[in-house]
Amino acid sequence: MITIQNLDKAFAKQKVLSDVTIKIADGEKVLLLGHNGAGKTTLIRCLLGEYRPDHGTVTVAGHSLAHERVAALRKIAFVPQLPPPIRFTLNELFEYAAKIGHCDIDKIRKNSIYFGLNTDAHDHKAFYKLSGGMKQKTLISIAFSRDADIFIFDEPTANLDTMGRDRFRERISADAMKEKTIIFIGHRLEELSSVVTRIIELDLGKVIRDEQA
Ligand SMILES: Nc1ncnc2c1ncn2[C@@H]1O[C@H](COP(=O)(O)OP(=O)(O)OP(=O)(O)O)[C@@H](O)[C@H]1O
Ligand SMILES: [Mg+2]
């Protein structure tokens, strides 16, 4: 269970989130919609404890993000909207991710092939030098290798080619994901309509729609 309660967040004088309350039960597949700048990524960053809210609380599986962040994040796999400028090579990144994510490096490699990443050709290239779609495929491959209960994808298919999109849709629809909680941030429902169970829309930092899909 994810509980976001009366969340406010401002940057300088700009109020970005305003009294946001959302409860997400285990197994829900939520699509978070909203215009550019509506506050979607900020909400996710508060959920991950990367931004400290000005008011309100976030808990994941009963753990407060403010006080027990490590426990709260243990079962969350997250793919950010903008990949960080990691200097590791792909090989080093896979090793690092396997170690800190407690997952099998062979599983990451298998996933990267499944998502169409040509690792052989790029194993020794720094992650930040990869193309936008290749970075996204790398981070998606790592996320699906984690033993997570909650998956959060911030515009995961924005840079993917057709095969990458098809594979992503296939993977999130698989039986193995039935029990998992997934939050997608996106702009289009069509791609995910067979998976999504709930739609939440933000506008100017407020929830303006919250309904079953
Ligand atoms: N670290 C920050 N410092 C200052 N302003 C910020 C910061 N992070 C976000 N904002 C502002 O908060 C607002 C919401 O940004 P956010 O990234 O949450 O939007 P979004 O809904 O994810 O949009 P998009 O669809 O473009 O990704 C924007 O006006 C943005 O400039
Ligand atoms: Mg965003």
Notes on the structure:
This protein is of the alpha/beta class and 213 residues long. The chain has helices at residues 40-47, 69-73, 90-100, 105-114, 119-122, 132-143, 162-173, and strands at 2-11, 14-24, 29-33, 55-60, 63-64, 76-79, 150-154, 181-185, 198-203, 206-212. The two termini are 19 Å apart. It contains seven helices and ten strands. It folds into two domains: 1-75 and 149-156 and 180-213, P-loop containing nucleotide triphosphate hydrolases (Rossmann fold, 3-Layer(aba) Sandwich), CATH 3.40.50.300; 78-148, no CATH class. It has a six-stranded mixed beta sheet with strand order 6-7-8-3-9-10. The relative contact order is 0.20. Helices cover 29% and strands 29% of the residues. Magnesium ion (MG) binds at residues 40-41, 81, 154.
Task: For the structure shown, list the relevant keywords.
single chain, globular, binds adenosine-5'-triphosphate, four-stranded antiparallel beta sheet, binds magnesium ion, 213 residues, 7 helices, Rossmann fold, 29% strand, 29% helix
